[in-house]
Design a protein that fits this description.
The chain contains 18 helices and 26 strands. The protein is α+β, with helices and mostly antiparallel strands. The strands form seven sheets. It has a seven-stranded mixed sheet with strand order 13-14-15-16-22-23-26, sandwiched between helices. Helix 8 crosses helix 9. The protein is globular and about 75 Å long. The structure holds 2-acetamido-2-deoxy-beta-D-glucopyranose (9 copies). This is CPAF-like PDZ domain-containing protein.
Length: 646
């Protein structure tokens, strides 16, 4: 896979602790429960009746290309290659059993997912377990169709932490239209779609996209946001995720990898091309764009057998699968498009600007190249700098922030509001297996295990939980007409010590109050980003602005608060670590190369302890919309945000 393990926002099960677990899991040769020798499972489920091996054809095409050319795969060859692998009912049953075992034991939202959405949210309630069982009763002929249905089933709760991705079908090839889109509101109030970038024909930039495949563009995109995306329970936020927008990523202002989901994909599109009806400079035209399909792994297979063995069969060196579009043009940055602000601090995961007397804090809580403490130090320096420069107001730009370290989120909360409890109350599901895991890790004092209780303190008393029974408690709630048990509500204690180390004895005292601050996002502010935005908004009364979405429809300022991201690899590593993988209660590792990402904790509102934040609709106080300039120059939005503070 990727030589560097890229840890993108949504995969962020990312507290250092978990990183340690992964290392343990990957490097410890003794975790033989999970080790499988590839030779043991060389049965490749290839349909021998297929006359031409389409996977081999792709490899041959690649070998035949001229050296300097990029090799683009033919859509139908790839579709045929994927469909070469026959459905295996035994294997499908195992895959479903693993997913069920993980979700039933550890996914806190399994029952609440059955409840209808709060007004403002758009998703269909779902009983995941019974839908999974229904899949097993479906007659599939190809593995591809089965896996595709499974992926889309798990998108249905529209939780950015919850997704199922296949290495075989979602990581080896990428699909690119060569153009990307944005949306504006025209002077007559009508919303329209425009072309943001086009690497094939730059004269089309800023043309209006009136139709897509002969239907109104807005209608097609709304439908796609409904059916094919999962990053928020708010449809307007999902709509934003289809289009382009800028954020701080990898040290630069660039088009966020969480966006452009309509025009850059990792799931085989339904057909080989898309047509766009355009209006450019007053005249109409139609263009047809084929998907550009490429791979970094042409050398790693020669035919369908080797394709299956390299990419689809279970592996001892799993990598984290990336569900987003981050295969685009890394080199294109927008740093010098910032026309109306002066950069005063350039951190790796945060940037600070001055715009007249307003300080701008651009925070990307996730950064794979620096650890959480380094991020905290940089954020501290950035705010100190704004203070030195005499900033009277603060605009937080948290656009396209898919989350990261929870510790960094809490640090931001406590840095600006030192008298606050920076955490949200968390809890975890209590089941026979999770209880056993908590008891085993706690008794065995497995520090570093997510299940060990002495790293947690009660949210209300701040007393450390010394015994697993203290931690587990006796809390039964009704969710989706089902009685479900959860642990006592807790916070993590380790972070407090880190904050003390970084802030020292004289924590800074800034002059800003909540009235001087405003949060700007496009709703794609998830996970630990949501923990900053929700905390500042709920507990401090900081105003919020959401940009984009649908005209005349309110928009959330944050999404998928979840609790903490986790995934199947890390979970199996944790179960191995405490010796429970062989327990009959434990789900078993996948037989195929897939990841199930899921939240393992949930968080609640502080003010209303009945409200699970994942399911709580909170619209922004103010709305802004992009225009042809501000879509490429966030400082124009900062200016508008700042003026709302007067
Ligand atoms: C692909 O092949 C290259 C070169 O042999 C190797 O380094 C890399 O690990 C392979 N990748 C995968 C996903 O098999
Ligand atoms: C191949 O096709 C024949 C005739 O269509 C069918 O009887 C046979 O079961 C197929 N074989 C496999 C392995 O699918
Ligand atoms: C490779 O380049 C040569 C010379 O430019 C051209 O004639 C030939 O068609 C090219 N082959 C392929 C497979 O593109
Ligand atoms: C189906 O999958 C099972 C479990 O992975 C495997 O043991 C079996 O050999 C497979 N069957 C075929 C026909 O490939
Ligand atoms: C599927 O797996 C379950 C649990 O292991 C087992 O009881 C059942 O018999 C399996 N069904 C099929 C069709 O293999
Ligand atoms: C539209 O007009 C702009 C500015 O004059 C020009 O750069 C662009 O190429 C034109 N696009 C088309 C498709 O005519
Ligand atoms: C700064 O303030 C001046 C005067 O108040 C105003 O004209 C100018 O547009 C402002 N500049 C920015 C970058 O906001
Ligand atoms: C900020 O720092 C990064 C890494 O040091 C660098 O790549 C980037 O160009 C800098 N950006 C600006 C605007 O100075
Ligand atoms: C756990 O032990 C610590 C240290 O002895 C103590 O301060 C704390 O109150 C205990 N927690 C509870 C919930 O009793």
């Amino acid at each position: 896979m990727k030589s560097k393990v890229k840890l993108y926002g949504f995969l962020l099960f990312i507290i250092l602790l978990s990183l340690n677990l992964i290392q343990y899991f990957w490097l410890d040769g003794t975790s033989h429960h999970f080790r499988r020798d590839r030779r043991d499972q060389s049965i490749t489920p290839v349909d021998t009746n297929v006359s031409v091996d389409a996977c081999a054809k792709i490899h041959q095409g690649y070998l035949g290309k001229n050296n300097s050319d990029i090799y683009y795969v033919d859509y139908y060859d790839l579709e045929t290659c994927f469909k070469t692998f026959k459905f295996n009912a035994t294997q499908a049953n195992k895959t479903i059993n693993t997913i069920k075992g993980i979700l039933e034991n550890f996914y806190p939202f399994l029952d609440q997912d059955k409840e209808p959405p709060q007004p403002g949210f758009t998703f269909q309630s779902i009983d995941i377990i019974s839908k999974l069982e229904e899949l097993l009763n479906t007659q599939y002929s190809t593995d591809f169709q089965f896996i595709t249905d499974l992926t889309s089933l798990l998108f249905q709760p529209k939780d950015g932490h919850l997704f199922f991705f296949s290495n075989c079908y979602n990581q080896i090839f990428t699909f690119d239209q060569g153009l990307s889109l944005y949306s504006i509101i025209k002077p007559d109030g009508k919303q329209t779609i425009k072309i943001f970038n086009d690497v094939i024909d730059s004269s089309l930039i800023d043309c209006e996209v009136v139709t897509i495949d002969s239907r109104p563009a807005m209608e097609v995109l709304t439908e796609f946001a409904n059916d094919k995306t999962f990053s928020s329970k708010d449809l307007g936020v999902r709509f934003n995720s289809l289009l382009s927008s800028l954020s701080l990523e990898n040290n630069n202002i660039r088009v966020s990898s969480l966006t452009q989901q309509f025009t850059k994909r990792r799931i085989l599109p339904e057909k080989p091309s898309i047509s766009y009806g355009l209006t450019c400079n007053g005249s109409s035209s139609t263009i047809e764009r084929s998907w550009k399909i490429i791979s970094n792994f042409y050398d790693n297979f020669t035919d369908s057998n080797s394709y299956w063995n390299s990419f689809c069969a279970a592996t001892t060196t799993p990598s984290l699968l990336d569900p987003f579009n981050d295969f685009g043009d890394y080199s294109k940055t927008y740093d010098n498009m910032i026309s109306k602000a002066q950069m005063v601090f350039n951190g790796t995961s945060s940037r600070f600007y001055m715009q007249n007397q307003t300080g701008i804090a651009l925070i990307s809580t996730f950064e794979s190249t620096v650890n959480d403490q380094e991020q905290m130090k940089q954020i501290l320096q950035g705010f100190n700098k704004l203070n030195e420069m005499g900033a009277k107001k603060i605009v937080f730009d948290l656009t396209d922030n898919g989350g990261g370290f929870i510790s960094v989120a809490e640090f931001v909360n406590i840095l600006l509001f030192p008298d606050t409890n920076p955490s949200f109350p968390s809890d975890a599901k209590v089941t026979d297996l999770s209880k056993l895991a908590i008891q085993t890790a706690t008794t065995g004092q497995i520090s570093g295990s997510i299940f060990e209780t002495q790293q947690y303190a009660s949210f209300s008393t701040l007393q450390v939980f010394n015994t697993s029974q203290d931690f587990i408690g006796n809390n039964v709630y009704t969710r989706g007409n089902t009685q479900v048990s959860y642990t006592n509500k807790f916070i993590r204690i380790g972070y407090r010590e880190i904050f003390r180390q970084i802030l020292g004895n004289n924590p800074p005292k800034y002059p800003w109050t909540s009235k001087d601050m405003i949060i700007l996002t496009n709703g794609i502010c998830g996970s630990s980003c949501a923990m900053i935005a929700q905390h500042l908004a709920e507990l401090q009364g900081v105003a919020t602005i959401a940009v984009g979405g649908f005209a005349e429809t309110p928009l959330s300022f944050a999404s998928f608060a979840g609790g903490q991201a986790f995934n199947s690899y890390v979970l199996f590593g944790s179960l191995i670590e405490i010796g429970l993988l062989d327990n009959p209660l434990s789900p078993q590792p996948f037989d195929i190369f897939v990841t199930l990402a899921f939240p393992i904790l949930e968080i609640y509102s502080v003010k209303n302890d009945q409200e699970v934040l994942e399911f709580t609709y909170r619209k922004a106080d103010h709305r802004l919309f992009y225009d042809e300039k501000s879509i490429r120059d966030p400082s124009l939005l900062w200016e508008q945000a700042s003026s709302l503070l007067n």
